[in-house]
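FAQ: What does the model actually see?

It sees only this:
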Amino acid sequence: MSTCTMPSEPSVSAPSVSAPSVSASSVSSPSIVVITEKAVGEMNRVLSEKKLPESTVLRIGVAGGGCSGFSYSLGFDDKCDEMNDVVTNQHGLRVAVDRKSAMFLEGTVIDFYDGIERRGFTFENPNAKKSCGCGSSFSV
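And it is asked to produce this:
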């Protein structure tokens, strides 16, 4: 495994989906997944609480399972593989999506919801044909 470096491409606009707005200046290269500022704020809070190193990346993926066929995976990783991961920088957070998951996640927007009835990350995935009631699994 090699250390991930950011591509040196100019900023481009985020994919157009019906979700919270994301500014073009916050994404360093074309992203598979777009993460809102609110979601990045919550992720940075967790990074700080856990005292994880600055080299930590947010890893987003898809795994088989869940009540609809696929489930989202979201976690922190201390390494990534430039050959197998698409790495972007969003609002100062390094994000890695493995290439196998990329086809299921293209255009997905991740936000953070903090309401009275629930609290957590939400996935707005334009590729999902069906999703479960809790929003943590989907089918294509």
